[in-house]
3-beta hydroxysteroid dehydrogenase/isomerase family protein (Ketogulonicigenium vulgare), 279 residues
Amino acid sequence: MRKIVLTGARGALGTSLRGPLSKMCDQLVSTDIQPGPEGLYDNETFHIADIAKFDEIAPLLEGADMVVHFGAIVDEKPFEELLGPNFVGAYNIWEAAHRHGVRRVVYASSIHAVGLEHTNSGADTTVAHNPDTFYGLAKCFAEDLGRMYWQKRGVESVCLRILSCTPEPQNIRALGTWLSHRDMVQLVTRAIDSPVVGFTVIYGVSNNTRSPVDNAKAAFLGYRPVDNAEDWAHSLFAKAGIPDPQDKALTRLGGPFAVVPLGESGVAAIQKMSEGQKP
């Protein structure tokens, strides 16, 4: 592959992707609104750019085969704060991809696009959008944008509905939702090297015994996760105590994001859950 563009390259997940992506192409263009890292890979260049500004981000996509779009605010915020990076930024990526003939966009979507769906509903990749926050609404917008750009303009998309991507599972909810960094890298790799994807949604989740979602309809991508949050079950249950069966933070796919007021941090609520407090 000639060129891959990675947005959000300074984030936790973007940082984990830079090395693997650099091995998949002749040229890796990494970008973020923050300054670049101290060291770059031999075939990597870094550009400071605001994805909410078309004239800053669009030129970076020229000559690219694929865009791995992980750039966004990764928490619930007031709508006005999310509008630029999460809504307009998504439009800018797909529109620039179309104008420059980019083959595919690999997008970091989120479980929060369906966050108010019941945990025990067996949600597959065709379940209707059911966002839990403005943040989740932005993911719905981008997924619909990707579907439209495939059907109207032929730009392929793989939307990765990431659940809980951390080095280790942090709470009892994560026994089902955890995505290890190793599996995250495999997921992105399969989204890139699959020959034909059209428009595809897949859940970003590890091989958890208690996974609440079903990826069967995206099996053609070849994603076969290897890590399992069950290895942490004993210690997480000991820390959590007895769960409340009426707690929407446990009974909805979005976890604590399903219970926070619109515009207020869901990440802070997840931290409370991890500390054994009510979100």
Remarks:
- The longest strand covers residues 104-110.
- The CA atoms of residues 155 and 203 lie 20 Å apart.
